[in-house]
């Protein structure tokens, strides 16, 4: 008798993953020209869209084949699936170490660019979408795992700030791969930025977004795959290393200060007790 949740009991999940992977690879890379630019659609995007269509939380009829327990079992597998891709960074970054050194301060200071989430998103959250304290969690970062941990530790997951960061985290998980892939190929086709600059922009602290972004860039510049992956991987690692501190000591205090200015009549909320 199979135990619930065992590998054999999840045969529906394995079949779905195999079929999606085969179909996505058969469709192959497609290029959509848009004026002087172009959007490069990768198999990863097709896999994402097909996965959404068989998610019972999105399409109710899909529950006849993929049940909620398959969805629950699949969630932790994302990290495992990305591990080989992350491991590849180490094998690529080493031989390209001299190129990383030549990138110099640009690679180290790229984390400052993530503060743009505060500059652009906070005014929209406050004055357009009329958010309250949810705006703090939603706009202080790109809301990946380290940023989520900061909000949970400081305010708690059930707080308004926790709700804000979780909404952005879920939206980023669902649509971040698609958006990053399209933006990367579109930006590359414009000819404004160098491959190195766009590769460094791929590292926002998300493995799936990094894979989509660097994959699109590698498709646009076939002879620079190693350089693109090396710079994107190093940028992503530095984002994990420095991004936590920038978010904790710069971005979050800045958003809290801006919120007090935007909502001066609101009483301060006590932080979560450790």
From TrEMBL:
Q: Does the keyword Transcription apply?
A: no
At the top level of its lineage, which domain of life is listed? Bacteria
Q: Which UniProt keywords apply?
A: Membrane, Transmembrane, Transmembrane helix
InterPro entries named among the record's database cross-references:
DUF3100 (IPR021450)
Q: Does the keyword DNA damage apply?
A: no
Transmembrane regions listed in the UniProt entry: 39-59, 71-87, 107-128, 164-186, 237-259
Report the protein name in the record: DUF3100 domain-containing protein
The record lists the organism as Prauserella alba
- Taxonomic lineage of the native organism: Bacteria, Bacillati, Actinomycetota, Actinomycetes, Pseudonocardiales
């Amino acid at each position: 008798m199979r135990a619930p949740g065992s590998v054999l009991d999840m045969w529906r999940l394995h079949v779905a993953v195999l079929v999606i992977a085969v179909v996505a690879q058969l469709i192959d890379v497609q290029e959509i020209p848009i004026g002087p630019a172009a959007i490069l659609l990768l198999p990863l995007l097709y896999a994402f869209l097909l996965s959404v269509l068989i998610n019972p939380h999105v399409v109710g009829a899909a529950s006849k084949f993929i049940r909620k327990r398959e969805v629950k079992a699949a969630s932790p597998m994302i990290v495992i699936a990305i591990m080989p891709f992350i491991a590849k960074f180490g094998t690529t970054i080493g031989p390209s170490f001299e190129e990383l050194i030549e990138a110099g301060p640009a690679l180290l200071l790229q984390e400052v660019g993530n503060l743009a989430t505060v500059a652009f998103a906070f005014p929209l959250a406050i004055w357009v979408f009329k958010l309250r304290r949810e705006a703090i969690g939603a706009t202080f970062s790109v809301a990946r795992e380290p940023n989520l941990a900061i909000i949970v530790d400081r305010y708690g997951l059930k707080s308004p700030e926790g709700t804000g960061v979780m909404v952005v985290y879920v939206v980023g998980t669902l649509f971040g791969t698609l958006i990053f892939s399209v933006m990367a190929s579109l930006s590359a086709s414009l000819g404004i930025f160098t491959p190195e600059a766009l590769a460094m922009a791929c590292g926002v602290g998300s493995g799936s977004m990094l894979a989509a972004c660097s994959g699109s860039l590698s498709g646009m510049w076939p002879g620079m795959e190693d350089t693109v992956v090396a710079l994107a991987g190093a940028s992503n690692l530095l984002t994990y290393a420095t991004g936590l501190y920038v978010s904790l000591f710069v971005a979050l205090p800045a958003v809290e200060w801006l919120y007090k200015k935007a909502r001066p009549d609101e009483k301060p909320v006590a932080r979560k007790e450790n």
